[in-house]
Amino acid sequence: MWHMGDGWGWWMMMGWVWMVAFWGLIMFGVYSLMTRSRGDTRPPEHAEPTALEILDRRYARGELSTAEYESMGERLTSGQAIPRA
Questions:
Q1: 69 burial level (CB within 10 Å; 0-12, 13-18, 19+)
Q2: pTM over cut 0.70
């Protein structure tokens, strides 16, 4: 009668497959975490501009004088409220 071994051949093969899959998942997880953490330093694309960014843009467009720009900038950085026009 012909035998194909004691059956451990297939289990040993499957052991190697599972080990490769396990370490592949580990490496993929580490790679994903490393690349994701580098991307976190950038602000989201949909983020609204801050008050200082709006102030800078208005000054760049010539909507504010230098005195107004400096005054508003000081108020924003010191935490004082800017009076409404």
A1: middle
A2: no
